[in-house]
Amino acid sequence: MNRSPLSESVEMYLKALVELSDREMVAIGRLADRLGVTAVSANEMVKRLGEQGLVKHTPYKGVALTKKGRDAACNILRRQRLWECFLYDHLKIEWTQLYEYACSLEHATAPEVTEALAAFLGNPQTCPRGNPIPAADGSFAPLNGIPLGELDTGRAATILAVNATATEVIKHLYDRNLLPGHKVTVLEAAPLQGPLTLRVDGKDVALGLALAEYIIVSR
Fold first, then answer.
1. Does CATH place domain 1-142 in 3.60.15.10?
2. What is the pTM of this model?
């Protein structure tokens, strides 16, 4: 994949879109929440991305990446997740800090460095948070999982990945052992979009539905 000369803010929007759009078009409000910006700012950026042929916005439905936009987004994801592997496996950076530090590095990584990093790491397939790393051609197999909030009450599953981006959210999940490879059971789902009561490693944990969306579990 050849790296396009995109600004850092554009790269962050494209990456957020590919992370959010695995199953549906992305509402601008949801995109704004992901990036911590106002809906007005997100709408303005979506217009700019559309002018560059990176996204297509359908009123009342949402935003979708074009092929050009998806290729660029997968390039960004590849850089970021490879850096997560390096930081975790070789520099022993704390798991909760990986996303933040990798984001700083991804924007300044040339294609040659990306591929040298991949070779050095042995071409890993997933990052430490369990998310797939796109191949050099942009392809990757999506996780065969569902958000934790969709798991039926009484069912147990294995956590496949955590795709939260905010450090405080990642730490909140980490402190409750909601990590890749751990078993989780939904004990109760409170009505009216209330929190879930989970059992993780023998302990009961309460988790809001909004946070449960960041956790991907096996089907």
1. no
2. 0.87
